[in-house]
Amino acid sequence: MTDASFGGVTPDAARRLLLGAVDAFAERGFHATTTRDIAGRAGMSPAALYIHYRTKEELLFHISRVGHEQSVAVLAEAVEQAPDCAARLAAAVRAFVRWHAEHHTTARVVQYELAALEPEHYELIVALRRRSEEILRGVLEDGVASGRFAVDDIRGTTLALMSLCVDVARWFRPEGRRTPDEVGALYADLALRMAGDCGAAPAGVTSSSG
Amino acid sequence: MTDASFGGVTPDAARRLLLGAVDAFAERGFHATTTRDIAGRAGMSPAALYIHYRTKEELLFHISRVGHEQSVAVLAEAVEQAPDCAARLAAAVRAFVRWHAEHHTTARVVQYELAALEPEHYELIVALRRRSEEILRGVLEDGVASGRFAVDDIRGTTLALMSLCVDVARWFRPEGRRTPDEVGALYADLALRMAGDCGAAPAGVTSSSG
DNA sequence: GTCTATATCACGATAGAC
DNA sequence: GTCTATCGTGATATAGAC
């Protein structure tokens, strides 16, 4: 099992099913995954799944909700702790990317299997996702207002930043040449460049801003 | 039908099936799409599909191959025509993004349904995709060598650029607030910033190539 | 709560008439 | 080449014993 994010889920069988579903969905996709496969990974019979979850889709919804809540929390925490807006952007992107790399299995399900959710579940998840976008956009807006960043199209740049961070879940492999932290650091630098950050690059010239 | 990229496919029924498959795969994903659905969109019976294609997977392979070949061609052409390396990067990203936005239906299938391909087909497609990456990396390398760009991690930055461009296919909607050309222009500007382009106008003044 | 066994259904793909 | 009809398979989900 790739992920420790569902440690709080009880009973034990429900958690094992959840972890099995994450792995299976990430590998094959929701529709190509069978309930037999999920139950098998959890060491149970196919029927046992339905004791803990009403449908296969409910499993996906559970994974998506917990995953999104976690990534939003990570992002929000990173933004809170940084002193100025350049540090906030760097910390936000770094933390968000690191989460998507470390939890790439969960993240892949969370980000790329949304279409398989039932309409009302989908709406709920999209609302969560919008919060991530708003946090990032807020950082960009502050930086532009304070003169630290130079961005014409804030919405468009936010969208691009989200794209960049989220897509890490698609290509990241733990056996690859970069650690989650290294990808986070690279992407934080790229984000500052995209934001037109003038104060950072050459020699540690930092102008504090609100 | 959203796409005119398969105009050369004959006979007519084979093309209609291909176009139906593109739409269906883009909407629901490969595994959630039924052969009945594809045939229905083409105005035919389920059995007719098997006159023109051996399996459902063969349809996906055909779409993926043609789509990838087109996007690589668009990218290669853009790179060839530009005079210097900054113009090359801008033109490459602009053209590549525009293709992914204009052909977002095809592009979505091409980029996000690869996992459903049979192993040998998958390998063939991945080889095509690698060529896109190499073109972009080449532009970055030239720019760094000539001193025009400032990039530490060329491979990583290439990966990020690819991510950014390709992900356009996931979120782009024709009814959204930006045209394919506008997204292309924005992303070309962002790409120059990511490359640390020093010779361009001061940060924030988006005088990108248009 | 978990199992074995199974109901029910829809899928991909084929057969054979025209 | 296209149709109607259908085969065989494997899917989700349920029933009922333990």
Automatic annotation (TrEMBL), chains A, B:
For the HTH tetR-type domain, which residue ranges apply? Answer: 11-71
- Molecular functions per Gene Ontology: DNA-binding transcription factor activity; transcription cis-regulatory region binding
Reading the lineage from the top rank, the first entry is Bacteria
Which is an annotated Pfam family here? TetR_C_24
**Residues in the DNA-binding region annotation:** 34-53
- State the coiled-coil residue ranges: none
Instruction: Alphabetically list the UniProt keywords.
Output: DNA-binding
Q: What PROSITE patterns would the database entry show? A: HTH_TETR_2 (PS50977)
Name it: TetR family transcriptional regulator
Species assigned in the record? Streptomyces cacaoi
